[in-house]
Write a structure and sequence with these properties.
With 234 residues, this protein is an alpha+beta fold. It is built from five helices and 14 strands.
């Protein structure tokens, strides 16, 4: 059961949903600055909130509940056959953790958005968009770098808290698409959580009827936040 906390929140106007284009989206936005900390955010994650830049939000759509928070119990996770193959295929990569943003990251992000998501709301990419989406003053993210012979080919932007890890966004070299670097990045974040004694990896919102978001349900077992309860999905 999630913890009951009284929050100061605001409500955005309704607008077209970026996941399901035939529906209207509305967000609760946290207005309580006392909770803007790694400790506060970790509590809010358990209640279905998510970070974008400095802001914390949760879907609050009047006629839709398609967005469900998904998290992986690190101690119980078991990679499936495809995930195991992808992990083995990428053992020639060097994976390192960086605590600072680097110019290389935005260059890779710009290529990724331009070549992989030119039909989406994040196109055209700008550094201001990149920064306002990923950077955070009250909890700077970490960057999981993946390099091949020293060349940067993927970055997973990650929030680290005391007991959990939250996968923010992954971008990679479009020329390396055959490596399935998005899957490798999630597996690498699960390994990072395990090695650092963290219990949970939050993957954000599962939207079952959105093709681009369904990949999150492929990591088993996992939990979905249904109402106020986390439900085990074998």
């Amino acid at each position: 059961m999630t913890e009951e906390v009284l929050l100061k929140v605001g409500l955005t106007p309704q607008h077209t949903c970026s996941y399901l284009g035939d529906r209207q989206e509305q967000l609760l936005v946290l207005m309580d600055h006392d909770l803007l900390s790694p400790q506060g955010y970790e509590r809010l994650l358990t209640a279905g909130f998510r970070r974008s830049g400095n802001d914390i939000y949760r879907p609050h759509c009047p006629d839709c509940s398609a967005c469900q928070s998904l998290r992986i119990d690190v101690s119980r996770f078991r990679a499936n056959r495809r995930q195991t193959r992808i992990w083995q295929r990428n053992q020639d990569l060097q994976v390192e953790l960086s605590y600072h943003d680097k110019p290389q990251y935005y260059e890779l992000y710009e290529r990724y958005i331009s070549e992989r998501h030119a039909d989406g709301s994040m196109y055209p990419p700008t550094f201001g968009q990149y920064s306002s989406f990923l950077h955070c003053n009250w909890m700077p993210p970490v960057y999981l770098e993946c390099r091949h012979n020293g060349r940067l080919i993927a970055v997973a932007v990650t929030d680290l808290m005391q007991h959990s890890l939250s996968a923010m966004y992954t971008f990679f070299d479009p020329d390396e698409a055959n490596r399935s670097l998005g899957v490798f990045a999630i597996l690498s974040q699960i390994v990072l959580a395990e090695r650092t004694g963290r219990n949970w990896v939050y993957l954000g919102y599962l939207v079952e009827h959105c093709r681009k978001m369904r990949y999150k349900s492929e990591y088993h077992p996992h939990q979905l936040l249904v109402g106020k309860e986390w439900k085990n999905i074998p």
